[in-house]
Design a protein that fits this description.
alpha/beta; 2 domains; elongated; 41% helix; 19 strands; UDP-N-acetylmuramoyl-L-alanine:D-glutamate ligase; 18 helices; Rossmann fold
Length: 504
């Protein structure tokens, strides 16, 4: 969610369902308290830092609930009384009338000394409307929080972190954990801001979900995957699971195309052929007894054209892995878009070549899928990598809608965008994927699932999850994130698919 979308949700709930803001705040505080109680015990000293606005109101409910349940809690209001109004003021008055005491930060140093005795700090200072640098005294309080050894739990969003994308400098609480209210905010998925959240969980507060505006963004979960990963029918045959072609490789870079092809086979594709320069085939073939080959004309080990491919054999294509940047790309992509049937997935060097050709083929009836990492996407849109990292949702949505393509922006939070601008975020994986070849493996998984699934969008989200879960499982049981290889991922795919088939 963006901050505005979250405000719209609240207003929709209040105006259409009969829920008051005071009631929603009570629901939020109680839901958060239930989650917090899983993390703390009654022997710990807890400080609740309370600001203005809804976040501060939540803080009063949380402090009251924990005190009612026998926890050792001090409530510190870090803003002047005039900043507490509306629903937040109502809950402050309930807190006081319940017999509890509020301490005020007239002297930040006094709060600092109290923090040194705390085991847990609950951050309810600032909500989703903050942008840019903080002002005194909140800036000093945030600095104090970050200096403590206490376990810090932020509520909804770490104080000072912007909810939306596109922001540069800011000061913020570095939380150990964040309890997110209703839905995660955009900044939970950005490299520059996700660090501040620590671990995060989501609590539900009773919003009328059927009435809420759809932000057209979704966090893709194992539950979503469990109902959409394709399972082989009892009487299926090799033709039922896709006939794919992977185009790429060169004499000097045969490994990329080999990994893509083997990953596609491990991901259940029915039939697979590899179009690669003739001199690369002896290097690729020993790893892929199950594949056939389409030898391509070459010059110095690099493909020159793909005119000789028998396109009638295939109903989906992946191109780009290891093809090099010096090929005669114009004729290759013209042939590809004119004759290839079904989805076309473009990765790696293919993204470099296709940049100036997308508009020409934007009206292609079958899906086009681009799978860039941030550097490749920055090249595609003529922006800097930092710009891409700051605004990945907006930039990928605009690009996908403009060119009518699917975009899989790879990263710790992979953002998958449809040609209509719908977006999914997939969070699986770990640092073991941060090495050459991982993207080639992902391309093979995505091609195979796209040809076996009813929905391209589902296939892309599920492929990213299976790729990431495989890395997680392998590094739990057999490998380190340092030593994990892309080839290990390929051989680990079978077990990941097995877990999905067993669970279903």
């Amino acid at each position: 969610m963006t901050a505005q979308e979250m405000y719209d949700w609240d207003q929709t709930a209040i105006q259409t369902s009969g829920l008051s803001g005071t009631m929603l705040m009570e629901n939020a505080g109680r839901s958060v308290s239930r989650e917090v109680e899983k993390k703390i015990n009654r022997q710990q000293n807890v400080i609740v830092l309370i600001g203005g606005g809804n976040n501060g109101g939540d803080g009063y409910v949380i402090a009251r609930t924990l005190l009612n349940h026998g926890y050792r809690v001090e409530a510190w209001q870090v803003v002047p009384d005039e900043k507490i109004h509306g629903d937040a003021l109502t809950h402050k008055e309930i807190f006081l009338q319940s017999g509890y005491v509020v301490r005020h930060t007239e002297d930040v140093s006094v709060l600092g000394k109290d923090m040194q005795q705390a085991d847990v700090i609950i951050d309810c200072m600032l909500g989703i409307g903050i942008k840019g640098k903080l002002r005194s005294p909140i800036s000093e309080v945030v600095e104090l929080v970050n200096e403590q050894n206490a376990y810090t739990i932020s509520i909804d969003i770490p104080s000072g972190v912007p909810a939306d994308e596109g922001f540069g400098e800011f000061d913020a609480v570095k939380a150990d954990e964040t309890v997110v209210i209703a839905a995660p905010k955009m900044s939970a998925f950005l490299e520059s801001t996700s660090y501040y959240y620590g671990k995060w969980t989501i609590v539900e507060i009773g919003l009328p979900v059927k009435l809420l505006p759809n932000p057209r963004r979704q966090l893709w979960t194992k539950r979503d995957a469990s109902t959409t990963v394709p399972i082989r029918a009892k009487h299926s045959h090799k033709g039922s699971h896709g006939k794919g072609l992977v185009i790429g490789g060169s004499y000097h870079m045969p490994g990329s195309i080999a990994m893509t092809a083997r990953a596609a086979l491990r991901s259940g594709i029915g039939l697979l052929s590899i179009a690669t320069p003739t001199t690369a085939i002896p290097s690729v073939a020993p790893f892929l007894q199950e594949a056939t080959f389409e030898p391509l004309p070459e010059e110095q080990g690099v493909m020159m054209e793909i005119d000789g491919v028998d396109w009638s054999k295939y109903n989906g294509t992946a191109i780009g892995m290891g093809m090099g940047r010096e090929v005669n790309a114009s004729s290759i992509f013209q042939t590809l878009f004119q004759h290839a049937k079904g989805p076309v997935l473009i990765d790696a060097d293919g993204l470099y070549h296709v940049k100036d050709k997308l508009m020409k083929y934007a009206d292609r009836p079958d899906p086009v899928i681009l799978t860039p990492h941030p550097g490749e996407f920055a090249h595609l849109i003529d922006r800097s990598i930092p710009e891409v990292m700051q605004s990945p949702f907006t930039l990928t949505r605009g690009f996908a809608e403009k060119y009518g393509v699917y975009v899989v922006l790879k990263g710790p939070a992979t953002i998958i965008t449809s040609p209509q601008g719908d977006q999914r975020v997939e969070l699986s994986g770990n640092a073991g994927l941060a090495k050459g070849g991982s993207g080639d493996v992902l391309s093979g998984v995505l091609l195979a699932l796209t040809l076996q699934s009813k929905s391209v969008f589902d296939a892309l989200a599920n492929g990213c999850m299976i790729h990431g879960l495989t890395a997680e499982r392998l590094t739990e049981n057999h490998h380190s994130t340092t030593g994990l290889l892309a080839s290990d991922l390929i051989e680990g795919l079978s077990e990941t698919f097995r877990t999905f088939s067993v669970s279903m």
